[in-house]
Description:
Elements: H1 2-17, H2 19-25, E1 28-33, E2 36-37, E3 41-43, E4 49-50, H3 52-64, E5 67-72, H4 78-83, E6 89-95, H5 98-101, E7 105-106, E8 111-113, E9 115-120, H6 127-132, E10 135-140, H7 144-156, E11 160-165, H8 168-176, E12 182-186, H9 187-196, E13 199-204, E14 210-216, H10 221-235, H11 238-246
Parallel strand pairs: 1-5, 1-6, 10-11, 10-12
Antiparallel strand pairs: 2-3, 3-4, 6-14, 7-14, 8-14, 9-12, 9-13
Amino acid sequence: MFKKNLIVWFGIMALLLTGGGQALAGKKIVNGIDANFPPFAFIDQKGTPSGFDVEAMNWIAKEMGYEVEHKAYDWDGIITSLLTKKIDMVASGMSITPDRLEKVAFTSPYWKIKQVMVIKKDSALTLDDLLKGNKTVGVQQGTSEAKWLKEAAEKNGWNLQLRYYDSSPLAVEDILNGRIAAAAMDDAPAKDASDKKDVKILGTFGMASEDFGYAVRKEDAQLLKDMNEGLKRLMASDYWKELVKKYDLK
């Protein structure tokens, strides 16, 4: 009996020291981010993940006893990456939408955003010009504004041409080189672009404001609970105020 118990004990120890131990610990998580969505998430010049959500997630992970790694994925497929377990969550300026709620679970909202049109700084274009004047408007593929504009154009008969991009900053570059008339995006990256580039914010275009939240798989109830608690603590801390000021969020 002693020999049998000893074999069982060694088997358990071997499991803990290999893959079974990592699974039991369950504390390392991979956060999927957009590589080019300043100020919330981006890869900086040194190749390091950075931005408001990256720093916020680093704080939350430490506070809640997790180890977090940030990896960039194409935004258009990031929900699929989450569902297929390439990543464990998405903390990267993601809007909470009905379509997404059918697939994943979200934390409580942490930021409210609105969608705006961005045009060249010296442009005299109006919103009517963009929606009804056969103009080409850039939009990031896989975003809620891309879906809304496509559906609204069909419903309202807008003479609007949409061009899809991998990121909003790429659309801004095409505004500057004259390939498109404007770009639709969230107001925070729009402000970031207007601070750095020769573009300006024209204004909203009829889409309702949205909330940002962190997305996790529906079955990961404990992770969702921990992220909600971490967000609550972060938003009550002085560090939250520091991040808001650092990334010039209003």
